[in-house]
Write a structure and sequence with these properties.
Elements: H1 3-31, E1 34-41, H2 59-66, E2 69-75, H3 81-90, E3 115-116, H4 124-129, E4 134-138, E5 158-161, E6 181-183, E7 186-189, H5 197-211, E8 217-226, H6 245-267, E9 274-280, H7 306-309, E10 310-316, E11 325-327, E12 331-332, H8 336-343, H9 360-363, E13 376-380, E14 383-389, E15 392-395, E16 411-414, H10 430-446, E17 448-449, E18 452-453, E19 461-462
Length: 474
């Protein structure tokens, strides 16, 4: 046998093995679903057509709901930005990770702040990276603007966006830096043109999807809009086009953005391999004149009423999530981490308490699937204000409720039917009241309450000497 024949045979065998390994890798990648979370800012329960809006044109989001699942009792863990986002990232209540308020006691983190998401926390991005996922955060972060708190240090391969809210701009009495747009850990534009954010985020999101079409990916797309200003922003193509002023313009541009992402998935053949979750970080806040809508829920964003913390949610993955389905089972953003971990073939962190639960049976439409939550807790900053179990929600008696001027008496509501929280049933159901009070005591011991630390809280990240994120002169 000649040496040349042996060499040719070796090459052939190596090529066959390489092809087998390549095919195995592709098959393995195709077994893992992609995940996209589209997270709006301050958008209300009633702000999109499929959840009842008659003001805003949202055909792409409405079609997404028709092709997927509507979750009508889906909650964020807070009525404001930072704590809500901390829960999505970590699967934990904000008090668990001590991001229920800023280092100065503020309701959210502000620019050049000392506090941020602790680098030792395990984020949803880090869980998925362990399973071989490419990860990107494109949009508003708001979990700390110091380098050690940025998305690039929390499991994301790419970050493109603003590090905090769109309203945190230079003004008298607030010597903040010009609102920065960041690529990775570098400021590339300041002040950013807020009118272009939704468009640019969408372009970056589609680019990330295209670049990672051959491997599993996790895209976190936290929009800056409708945002925290009294005049939300939209690009020229949408400005002045809606029936609800600047607010409606921004909502309709987010609908366009959603359509672009879904179109990209379909064109790339990723439609059935990608689970898309569309929701909001909290309810629409009160404005005068009104802008957003939380109807038919009672209350506004920034509160612990249903309108503050119950948000619209749509989940779509053709062939996996049943089309045209609706579930009123209680689910939360905290559930995404353990659910995505399971669906990716991994598991949630086991060396710490995770408050979220696996809701995959609900998402895929298993017969008889019910909420895994015995209780859900409504916190206003560090104060426990209400608890829900099943259909019952108990507003706790509070002598000094946060964000309210008058003492609040105890009240019990059936929030499965009384969405506006209008009819107090406490006197009719004393046994239910006692049950929910016991659950509240469990939360106080575990997570804490106003003036009382919980035994299972963890530390937030702390930077004693924060510096601003500024545009470096070249």
């Amino acid at each position: 046998m000649s040496q040349a024949f042996i060499n040719r045979a070796t090459v052939v065998v190596f090529a066959v093995l390489l092809l087998f390994a390549s095919n195995s890798a592709v098959t393995h990648a195709e077994d893992k679903p992609n995940f996209i979370v589209i997270y709006c800012d301050n958008l209300g329960y009633g702000d999109i057509g499929c959840f009842g809006s008659t003001q805003h044109r949202t055909p792409h989001i409405d079609r997404m709901a028709a092709e997927g699942l509507k979750l009508t009792s889906f909650y964020v863990s807070s009525g404001v930005c930072t704590p809500s986002r901390a829960s999505l990232m970590t699967g934990c209540y904000p008090r668990r990770v001590n991001l229920h308020e800023s280092a100065k006691g503020g309701i959210v983190l502000r620019p050049v702040g000392q506090r941020g998401l602790h680098p030792d926390e395990i984020t949803i991005a880090e869980v998925l990276k362990q399973q071989g996922y490419a990860t990107a955060c494109i949009g508003k972060w708001h979990l700390g603007d110091q380098p050690q708190f940025l998305p690039t240090r929390q499991g994301f391969d790419r970050y493109f966006g603003i590090p905090y809210s769109d309203d945190m701009t230079q003004r008298p009495g607030q010597p903040w830096p010009p609102l920065p747009l960041m690529e990775g850990e570098k400021v590339i534009e300041a002040p950013v043109d807020r009118n272009t954010l939704t468009k640019r985020y969408t372009e970056a999101a589609v680019e990330f999807i295209e670049q990672n079409r051959d491997r599993p990916f996790f895209l976190y797309l936290p929009h800056a809009m409708p945002g925290s200003t009294r005049e939300p922003f939209a690009s020229e193509a949408f400005s002045g086009k809606s029936a609800n002023g600047a607010y409606g313009d921004s909502v309709e541009e987010i609908d366009w953005s959603t359509g672009e992402i879904l179109k990209s998935l379909k064109e790339l053949g990723l439609d059935e391999r990608t689970m898309v979750v569309w929701t909001s970080d909290n309810g629409a806040p009160r404005r005068n004149p009104p802008q957003g809508s939380n109807q038919p829920l009672g209350g506004w964003g920034y509160t612990t009423q249903e309108g503050g913390m119950r948000v619209p949610c749509i989940v779509r993955q053709p062939g996996t999530v049943p089309a045209g389905a609706v579930s009123d089972e209680l689910c939360t953003t905290m559930d995404l981490l353990p659910t995505f971990a399971k669906l990716s073939g991994g598991s949630a962190p086991e060396n710490r308490i995770i408050d979220g639960k696996d809701i995959a049976p609900i998402l895929v439409g298993d017969d008889g699937a019910t909420s895994p939550h015995e209780a859900f807790y409504y916190y206003q900053r560090g104060q426990l204000q209400a608890v829900r179990s099943g259909k019952w929600k108990l507003h706790l008696a509070l002598p000094k409720p946060r964000r309210q001027k008058q003492p609040r008496k105890m009240a019990l509501y059936d929030v499965a039917t009384d969405l506006g929280e209008t009819t107090d049933l406490a006197d009719e159901h004393p046994g239910i009241v006692k049950k929910l009070q016991r659950l509240a005591e469990t939360a106080r011991e575990d997570l804490g309450d106003e003036g009382h630390p919980g035994k299972n809280q963890r530390a937030a990240g702390h930077e004693p000497h924060p510096t601003p994120r500024e545009l470096t002169q070249q």
